[in-house]
Fold this protein.
Amino acid sequence: MGRLAWVLAATALAVGAAALAQGLQERTARVKRRLAKEAQAHAGLRGSPGTLPTDNSLCLLCHANFRSEELVTVHLAQGVTCAVCHGLSFEHMNDETSRTKPDLLYGRAQVSSFCTRCHGRHAQPEKVQAFLIQWKGKTRPNGRLILQQATCTDCHGLHALPDTPVLTGR
């Protein structure tokens, strides 16, 4: 292959790579918009996007402990607010006794199936297996006791409220 052919091939490759990068950015934006709509629909949120909160400010009035919590900050950066996963929860927000639960809550057994609706299956099952071998029967620094089955929040943020007399009904 002559020198000119190499230059032409390299130029074509560079142009193709730029077009590919632009195409990937556009596809990523479309996928994010679609996933946000699907998550809202799954959570039972209907209506136009303008009816949903665009931040977590109302939730953080009472749940200030989540202000810097990893699960909250990562999702909010992608435009996914508390309401997308927990519903609008008007009764919960207006209950000063904190006895009314949010519209949608997910127990440990439901967490992974809910998360995978947007995130898909865990891309690295060998990491999950290594995690289980290392931590099974032990308590993680975040306070989670790891049982037979790992769930998303065992690694990716605690995202739970501490037991209090008001929350537990004691």
